[in-house]
Structure prediction request, 404 residues.
Amino acid sequence: MQESITLATDASERQVNEGQYKLPALLALSEITASLSTNVDIEQLLERFLSTMIRLAGASAGAVRVLTADGKSLRLIGAIGLPDDLLECEQVVPLGCGVCGRAVTDFSAQNAEKAVHACRDKSGSTFFVNQCTSFVAVPLVHKGKILGVYNLFMSAGAPPIPVEVRQLFSSIGEHLGIALENVRLTQENMRISLMNERQVLWNEIHDSVAQTLAYMNIRMEMLRTAVNCGNAPSTEKYLGDLEDALKSAFSQLRGLLTQFHHWMDPRGLLPALQDLLDGTRKKTDAQINFINQIQTLNLTPNQEVQVFHIVQEALANIYKHAHARNILLDIRQIGDNYQFSVIDDGVGLDSGVPSGPGMHFGINIMHGRAAQLMGSVELSNRLGGGTQLVLKFPSRSAHKGLGS
Prediction:
């Protein structure tokens, strides 16, 4: 009877002891999992879980390290309970150092006592004599790649870490490894996005202001020749051309500043076009219609930007020159090509649209944007009056069919 009571008491104590680490462990895993899909400071996350790891292991101190950019060392990002002299000499340690190195090599938590002597000899810190008799290294791994490690330092008389807790450490290490990898991928995507934005900005300047300045440079040489030859009619003509081009450059620059201050709607091309039409509707009394016959537009961000600005330029020309009563934006797919049509019932090209540098450059810019889409822009008069601009370019599925 007494033996049964003793066994029951032991079982009850085990349940209590297990409960002491299972609940914090479940909470830790839950928080880690929740953080995988959020934009968190990963170093703060790792440092925050350090105290949880120390508590679960019954350790007296701990440290967390992450892999350096060159992949050869581990950098200290957080520590609890370590003396200043040890922190100073272990800011960066070689990847293959001691127990940490074995944890990295074996991709599993390591528990060692003998390694304490090696750490004491290397660091010269009395911490490994008076306060630490063994320690555990828990690797942070994702898809076979080491990303960091937790060090948990055990004092004399500390109870051995239960097998369940060691298994839990492996699970926590894998989850935090995923979090580290997600942050790396996010940073990489941000760098790629920044490079793409710079490329778009370069294209915008090249296709507008730079072309206008190149035109002005040519006209300047012609003006200089006309002045030197005393050719008054040519001088007046080239001065007028330069004046028009300068006005156009200022207009383009203002347009660029506006574009990049109010960038295209982040929701995508269709909401951006709808906002563009709404803005045009406020500037004119014309009836504006939008017909979209494509359920899903499969465009890259750069393609969306090029299409948006072609439509924007076409609507601006209609607003400035056409005196239209009706404007239509029509989107459809014909075969393997997307087709965007901007149609109006205004005065038409011959009489309504000036052929000065501003209009000329605007059309050239639209052609340049269409070329980036591997497509074309056609601007023509309609039989019933007004103009029609048609942008055609291959869909992405067509590109794949061509092996691009």
Residues 1-19, 352-358, 400-404 have pLDDT under 50 and may be disordered.
